[in-house]
């Protein structure tokens, strides 16, 4: 994995840029010491590490605006960073750029039950939103497994999902508006507390843009009323294929569960050892299906789901009988990633999405790939919407195992595209999937996406080296931004 070559001009003016940043954010708001910057050298894709030129921690919109204007004028690269939980290297620093940490933007600004929305700063954690409204029986639906740590600004950047997104949608389906700062320092608002906005769907463009278009400084999200009743069903199966076929059959029956997750044997055992969630150990695949609504509706749907599971040879079916038991069932799934960390020195967490009808086929192919590469894989994923999260287990201290794990992961993602799916469901492209983009998009499609970036970021200071496998200057794409009569990169020949 290669990043853009370091810009010597940027490195040469490091001291001046750091001094200018300290003038904007006084006190302890700028980190330039090598030892102190180590905390920012990677995100949750920790296989890749780079020290930035500096880290700046603004505390106001005005400071963010001034920082971006400075970097835009000086052509200094900027990597926005939230909670650092990105699994695709989206907030991997650049050696000739700064990290713009948004951790001080951590306030809940307004809870509006009448309009069923909450206004927060981007550094607020996902779970904190639910905690702020649960006393009135509300919650925020998208719930990544990292919700205790991941920030809502990062959720917007990656269009994050979670175990309850099958029925209630991802971040984009629960986002009402943002305030954001453009690379030239301009502050704009997209959307608001209203249901929808006229004009182009720029809010949709920003959601999942991975820090390439602007820096979010305020977020308005939709909150939902907690269902009257919610019960979870554990279903164990003799094979991954029968578990996958059950998922397709449940959806085909017209049932949209609140959550529908799947785990294979390695993940089941790791989670049960870690959490004691009550998972059966003698099955090859486990489904967790949550059904919500009125008590009568839930009881009826449980009967249908159980019947479907039996048709697919389920050997274990258990329905939660209390809220405590339902929470315990989900605790194992939510803790599956750290649990797998106990059985392997390292792992790569992949993220691809496939049509539900292809689950059994893809799981079988992954078993074959596992044998080919000689690496174990544990599967924990959002089965209901086909969002796979295979965990490839390896030991970075063993020569060549990291490369094999990366090749294994690339083959899984190519398979996802091959069967009609996509490279990512919620983790983003970042650097992890960047060089696989041509397997899904042709050259014209990638160029059109880069033209959109040029419209927001003509100097291309925001998160360069991410998402696009081949960088193009805006001039090369036939789109120029002329500001105050001056062309960017005036030394380039124009055709």
TrEMBL record:
Instruction: Fetch the InterPro entries from UniProt.
Output: FAD-bd_oxidored_4_C (IPR004113), FAD-bd_PCMH (IPR016166), FAD-bd_PCMH-like_sf (IPR036318), FAD-bd_PCMH_sub2 (IPR016169), FAD-linked_Oxase-like_C (IPR016164), FAD-linked_OxidoTrans_Type4 (IPR051914), Oxid_FAD_bind_N (IPR006094), Vanillyl_alc_oxidase_C-sub2 (IPR016171)
GO molecular-function term, one example from the UniProt record: FAD binding
Give cofactor(s), names only: FAD
Q: Which Pfam families match?
A: FAD-oxidase_C, FAD_binding_4
Claim: Nuclease is one of the keywords in the record: no
Domain FAD-binding PCMH-type per the UniProt entry, residue ranges: 48-226
Q: Which domain of life is it from?
A: Bacteria
UniProtKB keywords? FAD, Flavoprotein, Oxidoreductase
User: Record's PANTHER family?
Assistant: GLYCOLATE OXIDASE SUBUNIT GLCD (PTHR42934)
Its protein name is: Glycolate oxidase
């Amino acid at each position: 994995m290669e990043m853009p070559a370091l810009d010597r001009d940027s490195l040469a003016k490091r001291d001046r840029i750091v001094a200018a940043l300290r003038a904007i954010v006084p006190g302890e708001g700028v980190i330039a010491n090598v030892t102190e910057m180590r905390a920012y050298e990677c995100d949750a894709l920790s296989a890749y590490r780079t020290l930035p030129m500096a880290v700046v921690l603004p505390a106001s919109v005005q400071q963010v605006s001034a920082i971006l204007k400075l970097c835009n004028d000086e052509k200094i690269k900027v990597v926005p960073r939230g909670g650092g939980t990105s699994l695709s290297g989206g907030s991997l620093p650049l050696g000739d750029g700064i990290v713009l940490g948004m951790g001080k933007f951590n306030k809940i600004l307004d809870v509006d039950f009448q309009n069923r929305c909450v206004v927060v700063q981007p550094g607020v954690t996902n779970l904190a939103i639910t905690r702020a409204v649960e006393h009135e029986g509300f919650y925020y639906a998208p719930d990544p497994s990292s919700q205790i740590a991941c920030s809502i600004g990062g959720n917007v950047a990656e269009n994050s999902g979670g175990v309850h997104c099958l029925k209630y949608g991802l971040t984009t389906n629960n986002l009402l508006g943002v305030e954001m700062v453009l690379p030239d320092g301009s502050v704009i608002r997209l959307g608001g507390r209203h249901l929808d906005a006229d004009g182009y769907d720029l809010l949709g463009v920003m959601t999942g843009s991975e820090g390439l278009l602007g820096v979010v400084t305020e977020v308005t999200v939709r909150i939902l009323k907690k269902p009257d009743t919610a019960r979870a069903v554990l279903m164990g199966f003799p094979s991954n294929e029968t578990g996958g076929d059950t998922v397709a059959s449940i959806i085909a029956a017209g049932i949209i569960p609140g959550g529908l997750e799947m785990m294979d044997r390695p993940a089941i055992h790791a989670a049960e050892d870690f959490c004691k969630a009550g998972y059966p150990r003698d099955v090859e695949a486990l489904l967790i299906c949550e059904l919500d609504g009125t008590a009568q509706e839930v009881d009826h749907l449980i009967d249908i789901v159980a019947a479907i599971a039996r048709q697919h040879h389920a050997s274990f079916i258990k329905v939660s009988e209390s809220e405590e038991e339902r929470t315990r069932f989900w605790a194992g799934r939510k803790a599956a990633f750290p649990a797998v960390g106990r059985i392997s020195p390292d792992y790569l967490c992949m993220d691809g999405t496939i049509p539900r009808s292809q689950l059994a086929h893809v799981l079988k192919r992954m078993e074959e790939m596992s044998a080919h590469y000689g690496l174990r894989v544990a599967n924990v994923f959002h089965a209901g919407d086909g969002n796979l999260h295979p965990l490839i287990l390896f030991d970075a201290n063993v020569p060549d195992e990291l490369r094999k794990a990366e090749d294994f992961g690339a083959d899984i993602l190519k398979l996802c595209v091959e069967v009609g799916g996509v490279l990512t469901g919620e983790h983003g492209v970042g650097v992890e999937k960047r060089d696989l983009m041509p397997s899904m998009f042709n050259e014209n499609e990638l160029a059109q996406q880069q033209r959109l970036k040029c419209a927001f970021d003509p100097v291309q200071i925001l998160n360069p080296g991410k998402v696009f496998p081949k960088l193009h200057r805006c001039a090369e794409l036939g789109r120029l931004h002329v500001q105050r009569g001056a062309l960017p990169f005036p030394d380039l020949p124009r055709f």
